[in-house]
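Why does residue order matter? Because the sequence determines the fold. Keep that principle in mind as you read this record.
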Amino acid sequence: MGHGVSAEEVRTPLSSWCRPHRRHRRANTRELRGLEETVSTEFLLPDIGEGLAEAEIVRWLVAEGETVAVDEPLVEVETDKAVVDIPSPWAGIVRSHGAAEGETIEVGAVLVTIDREGDMSEPIDNSDTPESESESAAPIVGTISDVAEELPSTAVQAAEKLTGVKALPLVRKLARDLGVNLTEIEGSGKDGRITRDDVIAAAEADTDEPVEIPPKVGLPPVPGAPSRKAGRTRLSKLRRTIADNMSQSWREVPHVTTFDEVDATRLLAVRAALARRHETKIPVEALVVGAVLPALAAYPNFNATLDESEIEVHGQADIGIAVDTPDGLLVAVIRDADSKSVLELASEVERLGQGARARSLAADELRGQTFTVSNIGALGGGHGTPIVPPGTTAILSVGRATEKPVVVEGRVTTAPLLPLSLSYDHRIIDGGEGRRFMAMLMENLTEPALFLA
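Structure:
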């Protein structure tokens, strides 16, 4: 299950998002017994990320005819890169779904129609005058925030800002399952973020009985031998996005790839020493990013975007980390990587990798990189020919370090050689500049003190 969108977000007063209709019902209607009137409202698919045009229905969590509560997860949708839970902005009964599972709908199309309970805070003028028709098309108010003029760019950050509670969607779900009120918990995580352990501790403090804790969400088991069953399967939304991006890059970018190997003896020793000293895992990607950053500063064309006849050099280094997931390749982005220490980079690589595999990252964490690092060595790879992501000018692929014969001071010995493959856009980066960038990168990887100082 992916990250969630708060009910406050989907109640944002955009006039095209919700269309109300008064529906009178009999007082003895079973689902709404005791109510004299309900409001049937069409909830339109919101733009839950900058530039979202459409989304695919993955799974309906509330069936037609069932009762739904405010902020209860209503449907899972898949955007270009993320799976998102959209909650119900109102309590009531789901009258109809706007699309079936597996179908794609556009932003602004009817996602669901809900028979809302109770009256709206502002009456709807049912007169037939032109003025009333204009008013009836205006934004719905009541529980909708009057100051929210537009959706935030990142759903999770917006939810935290609106609710005042810092917690990941999976932690929020655990709190709902255990009946824990997040507003009463003081988070022990970074910047006061509430963690899974915080929720479990709060649940155990409220009862003397053992608390049944749901298992952590992990990767699916490795499948056995692949089936040879023939057939055709429609590409997922993510796979279609990957295909479009790869095709665009291959059509537009004249790729050049340069290959090399670097002695990783010192790099691996430093990695092990840092892990021992700080008692934490140090992903090799964190050290590679640390080695790349000085080279990006020295050769800014590698941290740039080609915009027709102009080169836009970026003032910050937002480094993309390629993550292999069960659903396909995702690129998670470390924002302002050049302002972070190696330990902070290591923490971000771990967090983003876990979030990408769980499909719980916000859309803003999966786009906008200015340079990309791909560790194919994690899968046993060596050299490769990585494809430059659209909107950037270069990508570095790192293979697995392998013991090989080398000559040191006239003697043959062995050393762990790290394969490097650097692809770049030949329209703005010449071969000479490519080799100079690679030479500086190799120097940094050979002696990590050069970028750790």
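The domain at 3-152 is CATH 2.40.50.100 (OB fold (Dihydrolipoamide Acetyltransferase, E2P)).
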